[in-house]
Amino acid sequence: MAALRAGHIQQSKDNMPATELTVTSAGKVGDKELLVPTGVEGPLLPHVQDWVTAKRTARIPVKDVSTSFLVKGIKQWSVFEEKKGSKTVRTVFKIT
User: Fold this and answer.
1) What predicted TM-score, i.e. pTM, was given to this entire model?
2) What is the model's pLDDT at position 83?
3) What separation in angstroms does the CA of 83 have from each of 24, 47, 90?
4) What is the DSSP string of the chain?
5) Residue-wise over 53-75: b if at least 16 C-beta within 10 A, else e?
6) Which of 4, 31, 68, 72 has the most CB atoms within 10 Å of its CB?
7) Which residue, among 61, 60, 96, 56, has the nearest Cα to 78 in the 3D structure?
8) Are β-strands 18-21 and 87-95 bridged in parallel, bridged antiparallel, or unpaired?
9) Are 64 and 8 in contact (CB under 8 A)?
10) Could you read off the pLDDT of 44-75 as tens digits, one per residue?
């Protein structure tokens, strides 16, 4: 299984559980948008790739935009965008 192509996520054969986060934007830091976790954490997945595979199996295109964001207090994260109608929905995961 190929690793996600974000600079802060490296290919690993280890289990990399991911937790979905609820975040709000806190402005810009340099050329990146700063996201701050708010509220309760979402479901825990064995691997973020499981979520991506489920979306793609359902023919829902998702795009990894992790390199455009920083998440406060999180060392490893992944951010995906998908279109829902006329809106763009971002899903953020904390890689643990």
Assistant:
1) 0.79
2) 93
3) 18, 22, 9
4) -PPP--TT----SS---EEEE-EEEEEEETTEEEEEE-S----EES-HHHHHHHHHHTT---EE-GGGEEETT-SSEEEEEEEETTEEEEEEEEE-
5) eeeeeeeeebebebeebbbeebe
6) 4
7) 96
8) antiparallel
9) no
10) 999 999 999 999 999 999 999 999 999 999 99
